[in-house]
Amino acid sequence: MLTKAFIPYRGYYSTPFARWQGSLANENAIVLGANTAKRWFESKKWDPAMLDYLFLGITIGQHRVFYGSTWAAHMLGAPHIPGVTLMQACSTSTTCIYQASLGVENDLYGNAYCLMVDRCSNGPHTVWPNPMGPGGEVESENWLMDNFGHDPSAKNAMIETAENVSREAGITREACDELVLRRYAQYRDALEDDRAFQKRYMFAPEYRISRKKTALLEADEGVTASSKEGLARLKPVLPGGAHTFGAQTFPADGNCGILVTTRERAAELSADAGVSIQVVSYGYARAKKGFMAAAVVPAVKMALQKGGIGVKDVKTIKTHNPFAANDLYLAGELGIDVNGFNNYGSSLIYGHPQGPTAGRCIIEGIEETVLAGGGYMLFGGCAAGDTAGALLLRIN
Q1: 393: β partners
Q2: Do 12-119+202-221+249-269 and 158-196+275-395 agree at the fold level?
């Protein structure tokens, strides 16, 4: 259990998420993330010189990623600080925040900045020499598609992991479709009153239209409206499966940033000194091969156990839910109402840029908990390789 790591209220942002091959498809994710963070710091009148360390979370290779963390620090206005580039698939944000919190807990950092970026669009194609190949033939990999489609350990695609959990837990096509409608309605709540909820934390990235023209991405791009009739018309992705394309997320682009600091500094930087956001505990897990969605349950149980509370003590629950089965399985195993969490949105609906996905979910969970008067906020999400990460925060 942590006692010293805090996040200032509104000491975070997330960009809207852009659809695959959409507005952000041609932006280097590291450059876009650093430039967005720099503009965000300027908007808050914060000096990046206060930073001690940078955690750059990224999962899809970009040009110059070799220098990722230090290059990003330089671009955002903190060229004096070192950093680390961290990749843990969909758990990247969770682990960045926890690692930053450990540094604060051990008096290693005063102000650690977590910048999570990714661009699923136009993913790199990696080529390696193959000395044994005929005529100098090379080995190659499509960074995004090849890895979404094949886990070298479990020997299956990600969609197959969701179907494995569904079959074992008795999760049906009808239950998945019904949950999609609920998650879409929850996302629509975030758009009420001219997107009042989203505007509590969203910050628009600036992207290029041409050499001389730029634009701001003000809102999510690529969200598909869901209806009972529309979902019913879709065929399962896998024959006899519980998931259609409407019951799973889609690749996206975006970034987010979160400052982790001390209790005293968080109070100074907070948009409301009366709001305290403490990082309490972290959990992790790996499920049996080919059962990625199941890993979230032991991860959140670990975070709760380390935090000394039970799930009934939690005010707000947010999840990364790439497949509808994720939430249905979690709710069944924890004995909670599947319709009662992921208010105001989730990655099932607004897309999945990987690196920043969990970060946005956590930010939304903080804002929802503040609106609810405070309490514990729990995040849990699966990640490639049948793994998962969880984070417990306390908001007063």
Answers
A1: 279, 377
A2: yes
Q: Which CATH class is domain 12-119+202-221+249-269?
A: alpha beta
- pTM of the complete model beyond 0.90: yes
**Is the per-residue pLDDT at 134 higher than 80?**
yes
| Cα 171 to Cα 184: distance, rounded to the nearest angstrom | 19
Name the least confident of 97-106, 128-137, 383-392.
128-137
Q: Any idea which fold 158-196+275-395 has?
A: Peroxisomal Thiolase; Chain A, domain 1 (3.40.47)
Q: Which backbone phi and psi does 290 adopt, to 5 degrees?
A: 80, 20
Angle, to 10 degrees, between the axis of helix 92-105 and the axis of helix 357-371?
70
Crossing angle of the two packed helices 324-334 and 158-169, in degrees rounded to 10: 40
> For 198-203, which contacts have Cβ atoms below 8 Å and span 24 or more sequence positions?
198/16, 198/344, 198/345, 200/10, 200/367, 201/10, 201/12, 201/13, 201/14, 201/363, 201/364, 201/367, 202/13, 202/14, 202/15, 202/16, 203/13, 203/14, 203/15, 203/36, 203/39, 203/40, 203/43
| Cβ–Cβ < 8 Å for 279, 260 | yes
CA 181 to CA 231: how far, in whole Å? Answer: 9
37's enclosing H/E stretch is helix 29-44
The residue ranges of every structural domain in the chain are 12-119+202-221+249-269, 158-196+275-395
Structure tokens at 7: 């996040």
User: What CA–CA distances, in Å, run from 31 to 24, 79, 212, 287?
Assistant: 12, 14, 17, 35
Question: How far from the centroid of its chain's Cα atoms is residue 347's Cα?
Answer: 8
Retrieve residue 393's tokens: 């925060």
pLDDT single digits (tens) 64-106: 999 999 999 999 999 999 999 999 999 999 999 999 999 999 9
User: Per-residue b/e over 93-106, b at no fewer than 16 CB within 10 Å?
Assistant: bbbbbbbbbbbbbe
Q: Identity (one letter) of the amino acid at 123? A: G
Task: Determine phi and psi for 201, rounding to 5 degrees.
Answer: -140, -15
